[in-house]
Amino acid sequence: MNDPSATPPAQPRHVPVMLRRCLDLLAPALAEPGAVVVDATLGLGGHSEALLQTFPAARLVAVDRDPAALELAAKRLAPFGDRATLVHAVYDELPEVLEDLGIPRVQGVLFDLGVSSMQLDEAGRGFAYAQDAPLDMRMNQSSGISAAEVLNTYPPGELVRILRTYGEEKFARKIVDAIVREREREPFTTSARLVELIRDALPQAAKRTGGNPAKRTFQALRIEVNGELAVLERAIPAAVAALAVGGRIAVLSYHSLEDRLVKQVFAAGAANTAPPGLPVVPEQYQPRLKLLTRGAELPTEDEIAENRRAAPARLRGAERIREDMR
Ligand SMILES: C[S@@+](CC[C@H](N)C(=O)[O-])C[C@H]1O[C@@H](n2cnc3c(N)ncnc32)[C@H](O)[C@@H]1O
User: Fold this and answer.
1) What is the per-residue burial (b if ≥16 Cβ within 10 Å, else e) of 195-218?
2) Is the CB of 50 under 6 A from ligand 1?
3) Which of 19, 26, 286, 305 could lock 108 by a disulfide, CB 3.0 to 4.6 Å apart?
4) Which of this chain's residues are annotated to bind S-adenosyl-L-methionine (predicted)?
5) How many helices (H) and strands (E) does the chain have?
């Protein structure tokens, strides 16, 4: 029997998604001494810990916007001493973070997008629709507006757009009509009332498929509250720009909007941009990225059986093969 008092304080509470594949994708770039790998979404430090263990010559710079995640991960990564530098930042601030650390280029970048299992599991954060909790959903609770404020103050048309675009919710109009009626009676504060309202607003047939009917609305609110897509749209090109030639990037997305964005940035980097008809493609038009995955790779059925949260994951990787001369 293990001595329970010997259990490390930061209990790994989740399994890192597609871990082996992420490590394999980044491996060729991380063998050399002095290689720097960025974990743009530290979370509980699962991927970061494995990166430090697998690539003993590499140094890690890890970022998270959630101070609670940084605190837990710091304990987990303490045994690696100064090989790990943890920074409280939003991941589109990566260029400034690297500049402050005096790191001009990096050899690897990993993004594991979305919310961490800790954020989902802690009822008080308001991410989960399965338990009644304050409608917060901010990854950094010290700034920005909460999901309740979005629900209670946004014009109806704006709410419909958010539910449709970020939640791909077909019944956005019906749900928003119900929200507007309800919020006039009494502003929203906790999740259970919203979940119940969504359940009542949806037609019977829509409730029989696709899991909890509140799932899409919660996803949409979370994306809006944290400005997730706007930040990602800046962050992926910035991460590619930070890669040294030969450096590699791997991105795990959890819904089609994220994945589409990643796909577009990678495809643009991997495209030859020469005007048609040139017999030889001059250097400045050559692609600066090589795709490492064919389309998006999915988790195996075994992984999904062990870890339900891996189910929607989509992994894409790319290698920087040329300086930007465009
Ligand atoms: C899925 S979790 C990462 C889990 C991690 N790979 C692990 O193995 O423990 C995503 C993390 O990214 C953080 N995050 C999400 N968006 C962010 C952003 N724009 N900037 C910085 N961190 C972000 C969240 O706070 C969360 O802790």
Assistant:
1) bebbeebbeeeeeeeeeebbbbbb
2) no
3) 26
4) 45-47, 64, 91, 112, 119
5) 14, 7
Structure tokens at 167: 């939640």
For residue 47, the ligand 1 atom closest to its alpha carbon is: 8
Q: Selecting from 1.10.150.170, 1.10.760.10, 3.40.50.300, 3.40.630.30, what CATH number does the domain 127-225 have?
A: 1.10.150.170
Instruction: Tell me if 222 CB under 6 Å of ligand 1.
Output: no
Q: Which of 23, 42, 52, 127 to mutate to test the pocket of ligand 1 (most atoms within 8 A of CB)?
A: 42
- Tracing tokens 């709410």 back to the chain, one arrives at 159
Q: Would the CB of 138 count as within 6 Å of ligand 1?
A: no
Is 25:49 a contact under the CB 8 Å cutoff? no
Ligand 1 centroid to 41 CA: how many Å? Answer: 4
Q: Is 47 in the pocket of ligand 1 (CB under 6 A)?
A: yes
Ligand 1 atom having least distance to the Cα of 118: 27
Give the three-state DSSP class for 264: helix
- For the chain, which residues make up each domain, given as ranges? 19-118+228-320, 127-225
Nearest CA to ligand 1 atom 13: 41
Render pLDDT for 223-272 as a digit per residue (tens, 0 to 9).
999 999 999 999 999 999 999 999 999 999 999 999 999 999 999 999 98
Question: Per CATH, is 19-118+228-320 categorized as 3.40.50.150?
Answer: yes
Distance set, CA 283 to CA 289, 291, 319, 321, 325 (Å): 13, 18, 17, 12, 8
**pLDDT at 1 > cutoff 70:** no
pTM of the model: 0.91
